[in-house]
Amino acid sequence: MDFFDEIGPAALGSRLRRLSELMTGQAAEVYALYHVAFEPRWFPVFYVVATEPGRHVGDIAGRIGQTHAAVSQTVKDLVKHGLVQVQRGETDQRRSVISLTEQGAALWPALQQQTADVQQASEALLAETRYNLWLAIEEMEYALSRQSMAGRVKAVRDQRVAGAVRIREYEPQFQPEFRRLNIEWIQQYFRVEEPDLKALDHPEEYILAQGGQILLAEYNGQIVGACALLHMDAHTYELAKMAVSPEAQGLGIGFRLGEAAIARARALGATRLYLESNTKLVPAIQLYHKLGFRKTVAGHPSPYERCNIQMELLLQ
Predict the structure, then answer these.
(1) Mean pLDDT over residues 92-111, rounded?
(2) Which residues form the N-acetyltransferase domain (predicted)?
(3) Over 80: is that where the pLDDT of 207 sits?
């Protein structure tokens, strides 16, 4: 079975690359028909220089949708072959403008005729196919501008992971994992403080016995995330000791834990969730904002040195 038939759309990028290589190779044969010593990859840049003289590299890059570096390299190749020249702009000496040389200008009429012939042949080619590839490419580029391929893959991956993540209640045998997950991130960015050790070494006494809750995230049979709800008063819980293993970060597990903690707080009758963090923890702060938390100045003095931001989520 052909590789692309076997893999299917998962190899879309590779399939397009194969088509691109096929058409580029055949484009070289087209230039040979017209006895033009010209690289197919030069054409977009050369075309803009020929039809819109006085453009600089940045203009050309934006016009043809290529990177500044790619256009710069093409310009260097065209200069080397005597087809374009680079000069300082008359109105802005800091920018170099690109124009055709005499040799490039002499080549342009032949390229224009070749382009017209290629246009006619390409239209005939598209007419032979069931689907208009040109229009399909436009649709594909538009769709990818709205959401990148990486974003689409991440959404699929996160949905799959979400189905494999199990939110579990705390049990005494999970105390080592609860401690390890939190000590890991605290030591990476700060120092472990006395209140940390009390809660992590004796969670039953300092969290559960005080009316709090501990939730754990299990993925592929491993405890990879944890968070706690600390009872503050009749209507308020503190979201604390949230941690996700480095190996499981980026999978949306922190968000799942946060959603589960919010749902648990509501079930317990809470009307407010409170948390303390540090602005150095950018991904964590972004997660809290995504969950609906907002900065507050109404919190009590924190027992932690590392705390420099307090946030709350009203559940009413």
Answers:
(1) 85
(2) 176-316
(3) yes
Gap between the Cα atoms of 301 and 18, Å rounded: 62
Q: Strands across the sheet with 309-314, in order?
A: 165-169, 213-219, 222-233, 236-244, 272-277, 309-314, 294-296
Residue written as tokens 């058409």?
Answer: 23
Tens digit of each residue's pLDDT (9 = 90 or more) over 16-56:
888 888 988 888 888 888 888 888 899 999 999 999 988 89
C-alpha–C-alpha distance, residues 192 and 186, integer Å: 6
DSSP 267-311: HTT-SEEEEEE-TT-HHHHHHHHHHT-EEES-PPPPS-TT--EEE
The average pLDDT across 102-124 equals 91
pLDDT at 15: 85
pLDDT at 161: 78
Question: Which amino acid, 98?
Answer: I
The pLDDT of residue 307 is 92
- Nearest-CA neighbor of 96 among 120, 118, 79, 113? 79
Give CA–CA dist 99/49, Å, rounded.
6
Classify residue 56 by its DSSP letter: B
Mean pLDDT calculated for residue range 126-135: 88
Residue 1 has pLDDT above 70, yes or no: no
Expressed in percent and rounded to 5, the helix, strand and coil fractions of the chain are: 55, 20, 25
Q: Which two tokens stand for residue 249?
A: 């970060």
Burial 45-67 (b: 16+ CB within 10 A, else e): bbbbbbeeeebbbebbbebeebe
Tell how strand 272-277 and strand 236-244 pair up: parallel
Tell me the domains of the chain and their CATH numbers.
34-146 (1.10.10.10), 161-314 (3.40.630.30)
Burial class (CB in 10 A: 0-12, 13-18, 19+), 194: exposed
pTM, to two decimals: 0.61
